[in-house]
Every structure is written in C-alpha cells, then in structure tokens.
Amino acid sequence: MSHIAVLASLFPYDPNIDSALAHRHLVIAYSLVWIVQCGYLLYVGKKWFSARASGQDR
Amino acid sequence: MHPFRVLRWTWPAITLGLLGYGLHVALSVPADADQANVGRILYYHVPTWVAMSFCFLVNLICSIAYLATRVRSPEFSLQADALAVSSAEMGVVFCFLGMATGSLWGRAVWGIWWTWDARLTATLVLWLIYLAYLVLRHVVVGGGMRTLAAVVAIFAYCDVPLVYMTTRWWRTQHPAPVFFGGPGSGIAPNLLPAVQWNIFAWLAWGILVVGIRFAAERRRQANEQQAAAQVFEITA
C-alpha cells in the first residue's frame, strides 16, 4: 500500500484545484499505460524466445 | 558494423530516454487552467491515438503489399504479413489504452465512465474489428489465412478515418478536436512540449515492440517452413 502512496506522490496534486478522485484517476491512467505496455513487451519477448528455442530444437 | 545492428542496440536506449523525458515533461508542465492536474491525462491519451493510427496504417500498407506480392515474391509477402500482424497487435494495445485513459479522464471530468457518443462508439467498433482480425489469424488454418486476413485488414482500416472525423461531423459528448480543429482549437504553447515529446516517445516504443514482434513472427514462419520441408522429405 505504501508503494502506491509513493507512486501517487510523484504526480502533481493541489487540493485547492484538484479533487481526490481526479488525482487517483491521473495516477491510475499513467500506471495503467505503463503496466499494459510492459506486459505486452513481456508477451512479445516470450514469443520471440519460444520461437528461437523451437528453431534450435530442429 | 551494419547500421541495422547499431540501431538494434541504440533504439531501445533512445526509446527509454524519450519515455523518461516524456514522463518528466508531462508531470512538470503547469496544470491545465480548466481541468487542473487531471488534464495531464491528455499527454498520454493523445499519443496513444497517434501511435495507434500509425500502427494501423502500417498494417494496411503491409496487407496491400502482401496481396500484391504473394504470387510474384512469396518471401517478401511473408515479411509483409509478419509486419502486418505485429503492427495490428500493437495497434490493438494502443487502442485499448486510449479508451481506458479516456474513460478514466471522462469519469473525473464528466462524471461518467462511458457514453455511446459518436467518437467513443466508432473507436470501440474499431477495436473490436482489429480484435476480430487477430482472432481470425488464430482460428483460420491453411494457406488462405494470410490472404483472408489481408482483405479483412483493408476493410478494417476504413474505420480509422471515420473515427478521426467523428468529432468534426457530429458534436456529441467528446470534446471538439484539440489539434487541427480550426480557429479556437489547440492548447497553450507551454503545454505543447508535453504532447509532442510523448508522441515521439510512444511512437518510438511502438516501433521497438513491433520490431521485436516482427522478429518473433519471422522466426515462427521460418520454423513453419522448416517443418513443412521435413514433412515433404519424409513423404517423398
């Protein structure tokens, strides 16, 4: 939980102009982009390694 | 050293540098006057759409190239097909992220996660069409799969300009175009670098990941050809 708090503190937040919901959604939007893109990169990397391994087996 | 080999090692470093700088600029430019800090979602929302449009354009060009060369130059057409599937997958990921970031932004600003307005609906249809294209490539077997997929890709691309034009043709929930929207459109000059750097960064990321996916697909194709040749040797 403390990790999320650290992450959220990286994003600008001014209680005078921002709502807590808006701040949460800003953090989630940026985190989601990075998580999904890194997840897809892992999938692509796995595909590349498995294709290379099955090529060496032959 | 071959320039491609140099690029293979420098491109990831350039991409990571651009992504890091893009994130720094996105979080350090002043807050939007109307929407405050939640307006920073724009700096990731717009680049995902630009990158998605680029990926689907590559998919279209490669699909046409496949159809045009599959008889005359089978090896080149296989390369085109590998790039087509790689770019379509990346485009689907970008499209999903565009919708997700838009939904999170919409909930914070409009108070709703989703509405059936022209832009959002056309985008959802676009995502579903390209998802169907990828499913088709998995379920159809045999030599006709690549031809069928290339034809579907050409029809699928018809929705891309439609999505772009929706906010110009119909005024519904989605805001009017910020960029190239005519008089009164655009964002403050001091916020523009955040959009531009993140467009460069996510385009570079897209090229990097598509490149790796393309290499994996080419290896899979080579393995497939090798296996087919072995079967032919056994039966001959």
Protein architecture, described:
The complex is a heterodimer of chains A (about 60) and B (about 240). Chain A is built from two helices and no strands. With about 60 residues, chain A is an all-alpha fold. Chain A has one domain. Chain A starts with a helix and ends with a helix. Chain B is an all-alpha fold. Chain B has a single domain, classed as Four Helix Bundle (Hemerythrin (Met), subunit A), CATH 1.20.120. Chain B contains seven helices and no strands. In chain B, α2 packs antiparallel against α3 and α3 packs antiparallel against α7. Chain B is globular, with a radius of gyration of 21 Å. Chain B starts with a helix and ends with a helix. At the A-B interface, α2 of A face α1, α2, α3 and α7 of B.
Q: Helical content of chain B, roughly?
A: over 70%
CATH architecture type of chain B: Up-down Bundle
In the predicted model, the low-confidence regions of chain A spanning at least 5 consecutive residues are none
Shape of chain B: globular
* CATH topology term of chain B: Four Helix Bundle (Hemerythrin (Met), subunit A)
The backbone outline of chain A, from C-alpha atoms, is rod-shaped
List the secondary-structure elements of chain B in sequence, H or E.
Answer: HHHHHHH
User: What count of domains describes the coordinates of chain A?
Assistant: 1
- Supply the number of structural domains of chain B: 1
Mind summarizing the main beta sheet of chain B?
A: none
* Total E-strand runs of chain A: 0
Highest CATH level, the class of chain B:
Mainly Alpha
Radius of gyration of chain A over all CA atoms, rounded: 19 Å
